[in-house]
Amino acid sequence: MRTLLTARHVLGHENGRHVLIPDGVVVFEGDRIIHVGRDFAGEVAVRHDFGTALISPGLIDLDALSDLDTTILGYDNQPAWEKGRIWPKSYMDRGPYEMYSPDELSFQKRYAFAMLLRHGITTALPIASLFYRAWGETVGEFESAATAAADLGLRAYLGPAYRTGNTFIHEDGRIDCHYDEARGMAELDAAIAFCRAHENTHGGLVRTMLSPDRIETCTPDLLRRTAAAVRDLDVPVRLHCCQSKIEYELVLKQHGMSPPEWLESLGFLSPRALLPHGSWVSGSRGLDRPGRDLEIVGEHGASIVHCPLVSARGGRALDSFSKYRARGLKMGLGTDTWPPDLVTNMQVGVLLSRVADGTAVNTRATDYFDAATIGGADALGRPDLGRLMAGAQADITVFDLSHPLIGQVIDPIQTLLIGGSGRDVRDVFVAGRHVVRGGALPGFDLGAAHGRAQAQFDGLVARYPERTWKHPPVEAIFPPSYPPLTDAGYSPSPG
Predict the structure, then answer these.
(1) Are 239 and 215 a contacting pair, CB within 8 Å?
(2) Complete domains list, the chain, with CATH
(3) What is the pLDDT of residues 11-34, one digit of tens each?
């Protein structure tokens, strides 16, 4: 049916850039937008007037949280390697195992996809932790993920994560790598088969990608074969790199090159490559090493996937977003942590960039909003996404600007990045389907799912000592913020 949307603010798109249209309208038919402007004279079957709201392109999350996020456990519990984020050798020797059942993994994806939609994300490239897995992700769980995405109405690029290696920590605190190349290659073959079977299915909502894990968990042959498969399948490939000092130093030690230099030597980099997080690069703060890391990424047309919130929680930031943009680097955004809220990530990103630059002049709210829409679409080679214009996909997010907690509206984009969040999302359309209505997902009970997610998360936390260095009890790994009050008085924190 032909549907017309109207609101006080519409973010249209003309001549390669977003434009604000006061009291604008958006009209779509089927899964395509047919008109964006101030009025529309044609016949329509359905009308929605959202009042004091912003009708925006759907947000694109290139590193979309699809997990019950365990990185939040490290918020006040550091260093990460001592708090279960790197397997101890003793756990490796006993044999890593799946800490979630297939049913729990299936639920986890469906729950996470619902949360992404609720926060206004219409296109997502899922990311989940491998720390609680036996090794990589499975085809079975991603077949279930494809069904969940289609049921909920999320546009998703799917592919099981795989690796040939794993970092671990010795009893004396040394960090090392274990490799099982045959296992990783078999997982790559399975991922390629998944792409062939599921590309452009479910009416085009489900696309595929290749997802080797972190760069330090990959061998040269795995990355070479991945690059060849990307060329053959013409799908995106995402590889986390330049995200930590440990990773950067391991790659230097093993290959005598920085991560971007090594990827270039393997023929891995291309316009299809997506690289979270890109903050540890030559010449950046804390890394006294000359080099051409960012130039290499830019020369090959690869995209940096910037995840400001999770980086800031770890004490890291780009140096800076404005400088990366000035170099002509392709920049997209990702969530990668709870909450799966790109508005919050944009807010944090603007502030970090301004602090890094020592001025508010170089980074504007629009720079980050572009990255969350146009930047993500361009990284995927999808000119039909991230824009409200005739011919584009009807992927639309509506932000409510009418409630008193939003404060005074000075400009819809600036106001969102000053006092808004993903919780202000009111309605979402994906391929013309009304998937979030008044903050609710039809057919999905968020309250019940939240309760199940908490119980599943608690069960995982209870098993943390098994895969934490020296196997301390849970209360020592994650002590409370303040000492708890007991019948005998205050109990000292074990941390």
Answers:
(1) yes
(2) 58-387 (3.20.20.140)
(3) 999 999 999 999 999 999 999 999
